[in-house]
Design a protein that fits this description.
Blueprint (H helix, E strand, L loop, with lengths): L2 H10 L15 H7 L2 H8 L3 H14 L5 H24 L3 H8 L2 H34 L3 H18 L2 H11 L5 H5 L7 H9 L7 H14 L2 H17 L13 H35 L9 H12 L1 H33 L14 H17 L10 H23 L2 H4 L6 H26 L1
Helix pairs in contact: 3-13, 3-14, 3-16, 4-12, 4-14, 4-15, 5-11, 5-13, 5-14, 5-18, 5-20, 6-16, 7-8, 7-15, 7-16, 7-17, 7-18, 8-16, 8-17, 12-18, 12-20, 13-16, 15-16, 16-17, 18-20
Protein name: Divalent metal cation transporter
Membrane topology: Multi-pass membrane protein
Subcellular location: Membrane
């Protein structure tokens, strides 16, 4: 067999032995149970900071920005599936593989930037959740910052892993609040559909900065690290699972599960994001309120336009998505640092078994809480943190694509075919959006 034929077989996964699965009756419960890292990753993408970015985009640019959700869906799905494959094949997350196969300085740069970006994001999310709670029931926002922050960190440290994963899955339902919010908006569905299907470009630095912010919010580095690490984590928890690079049997079924999980999670994420953009366009943009900076401001601005119920639904969604996203942000940070240092890692471990891992998790959450008590306004930094995430995503995605094709990392399961090409297309699209923003600023 020639080398080219071997690569072709790898690309199609035809070399993977798999027993013919026994046909079982459809069960909604079993389908939900099979969803895991991909669903949680996709849902956590619509965190309070993301809601703020999508609300701002819809308020400023109206229906015409909806096309970004159609474009980003296949791109984010590809890069997240590749991330998941790396974790499932190797039994290590992205940082764990970087420390084993690449220079130490590269690991330090990537993990340091990830720690900073995620911690600022946690601070901004806590602030948005506190403001949303204050809208709902009143009271001091700082109290809610501490309450939500401590609760999120403590749950990760002390809850049973499987119970905690189940809680995160249930929290994804909070995102349906933004589908419900559409009922209170007078949406021009023809304009909304045109905005999704027909891109409308405006050559200005503000426009391209918004595009990069949307891309940075939608295709974000912490999502890559989290999903890869969670695939590796489930192998440590489930004794029937082993890294595919060690035991090849069942790889095809595992890749099918990963694809279904990832496609479901990313579709859910983009549907919610599009609902937020359309709601903001139909209400805030239509009413001339284009100065929205945060998700809480968007919720408050909805009251005189769409009524108090729209405000309540929007605010409840902010709290629910924050409770889902903060653990993912802090967890992704802890996994990256812990795997990079080769510490014992994993939410399934007892605190005394992974003290350093949980210390990083608590430190990231603690700094996020503390930033809300400093002169630094995390909400003011929120929009730009999304832009920074977009810029940071480019080198991380390049690294991930090189890793996915590296035989020393992936063995016989190197990523190829259309998935590999779509991964590079996603990387190129992110790079082009950053370049366009830079050119717009210079001109």
């Amino acid at each position: 067999m020639t080398r080219q034929e071997t690569i072709s077989r790898h690309d199609k996964d035809e070399d993977v032995p798999a027993a013919k699965p026994r046909r079982e009756p459809f069960s909604f419960k079993r389908v939900v149970k099979s969803l895991g890292p991909g669903l949680i990753t996709g849902a956590s993408d619509d965190d309070p900071s993301g809601i703020g970015t999508y609300s701002q985009a819809g308020a400023q640019l109206g229906y015409g920005i909806g096309w970004t959700m159609l474009l980003t869906f296949p791109l984010m799905t590809a890069i997240q599936e590749i991330s998941a494959r790396v974790g499932r094949v190797t039994g290590h997350g992205i940082a764990g593989n970087v420390c084993r196969h690449y220079p130490g300085w590269l690991l330090v740069i990537v993990v340091t930037l990830l720690f900073i970006a995620n911690t600022v994001n946690i601070a901004a999310d806590l602030s948005a959740m506190a403001d949303a709670t204050r809208l709902l029931i009143g009271g001091p926002a700082v109290l809610y910052v501490v309450l939500f922050g401590v609760t999120s960190v403590a749950a990760q440290i002390f809850m049973n892993y499987w119970r905690y994963v189940a809680v995160l899955k249930w929290l994804t339902l909070s995102l349906f609040a933004y589908v419900a919010a559409l009922a209170f908006a007078k949406v021009s569905w023809m304009q909304a559909l045109a905005g999704v299907l027909v891109p409308r470009l405006t050559w200005s630095s503000d426009y391209f900065t918004t595009i990069v912010a949307i891309f940075g919010t939608t295709i974000s580095p912490y999502l890559f690290f989290w999903q890869a690490s969670q695939e590796a984590e489930e192998q440590r928890v489930d004794v029937t699972k082993h890294p595919l690079i060690d035991k090849h049997h069942g790889a095809r079924n595992e890749f099918s599960r990963i694809r279904a999980d990832t496609v479901t999670g990313m579709a859910f994420s983009n549907l919610i994001a599009l609902s937020i953009i359309v709601t903001a366009a139909a209400t805030l943009h239509a009413a001339g309120k284009t100065d929205i900076q945060t998700s809480a401001q968007a919720a408050e601005a909805l009251r005189p336009i769409a009524g108090p119920f729209a405000e309540v639904i929007f605010a409840l969604g902010i709290v629910g998505t924050g409770l889902l996203a903060i653990p993912v942000l802090a967890g992704a940070t802890a996994y990256a640092v812990g795997e990079g240092r080769r510490w014992p890692v994993g939410l399934a471990r007892k605190p005394k078994e992974a003290m350093a891992f949980y210390s990083v998790l608590a430190l990231s959450g603690g700094i996020g809480i503390a930033l809300n008590f400093t002169p630094i306004d995390p909400i003011s930094a929120l929009y730009w943190s999304a832009v920074v995430n977009g810029v940071l995503a480019v080198p991380v995605m390049v690294l991930l694509m090189v890793m996915a094709r590296h035989k020393e990392v992936m063995g016989r399961f190197v990523v190829g075919g259309w998935l590999y090409r779509l991964g590079w297309l996603s990387t190129g699209a992110m790079a082009l959006s950053v370049i366009a923003m830079a050119v717009g600023v210079l001109l």
